[in-house]
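Now for my pick.
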Amino acid sequence: MSDERQRMGRWGEDQASLLLCRNGIDVVERNWRCRLGELDIVGRDEDIVVFVEVRTRSSARYGSPEESITMQKSHRLRKLAMCYMASHGLQDTPYRIDVIAVVVAQKQPPWAIERIEHLVNVV
């Protein structure tokens, strides 16, 4: 992945974190890693642990951001969520997996949001 795409992805995660905070969800961790991969954002919505996959795109050439969540990616996100829950002693805590889709208005910085959408409990 190019440095520019990585920077745009981090910017998208920043925008997603701000959206979550505005909607009353506390961001607990970002970019949590284990041997299975990475969770973009881990948050709390009252007593629910919320795992958020952020998908940032600069065009719909290859589909919308939310369409990029394949069955394989969904399966991996569920495994990552279980790994996080086990490593933090939260096995009995309710959780959900959300997606935040970010579409930027142009490919080069400074980026501006064309669309941002929080899809709840979609994985």
